[in-house]
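Possible regression after last week's pipeline update?

I re-ran a chain I had predicted before the update to compare outputs. Posting the input and the new output here so someone can diff against the archived version. Not blocking, just want to make sure nothing changed silently.
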Amino acid sequence: MTIPAIYNLYGKIILEALSVSQIKLNKCRRDFMIEIFMLYLSIPSRINLLQLGRYGLHGEQRYRRQFEKEFDFFSFNKALSMPWVGPRNAIAFDPSFIHKSGKQTPTTSCLNDNDLSLPDWYAAVIKKRIELRLSITGYVVADAYFSKKNFVEKMRECSLHLVSKLRDDAGLLYLSKQPKTAIWADR
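New output (post-update):
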């Protein structure tokens, strides 16, 4: 396949995803979003507004103005991926851009003001737009940090199942369903 043919194919896939997602876009905004997605596939180095202006059809200021407008990336990503995934899927949750100590977003003072722990904050992030997440799957995959009782309970309240590695300090106890014997009854 030649490079122009690949770009045409990708352009058709993106255009179809935009139409399936039912995101309201005028022609100018639709063409801009297609250009952005194609630039993301094309730019060989770091992608920022300056690079978009350098490699794209428009100046840096147009990209700045367009990125200030809202775009429903969740619906677009869902429409883009659903034709290619099977019935067994999960949502991966890894806020690696936020330090676990809470020194960035959200700040410790923000958590204290709202009487939340960091896992509570993350659970609230997942609960936001839960109906859209449940339309994809009922499973969330996260690392061992999230295998805490209160986080797991909040996921269950949302009808989500958490798939995670257990923490190193996890204490697993198996309760016996056998009737007590005479030895244990005396103690």
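Follow-up from reviewer: compared with the archived run. The chain has a mean pLDDT of 86. Marking as no regression found.
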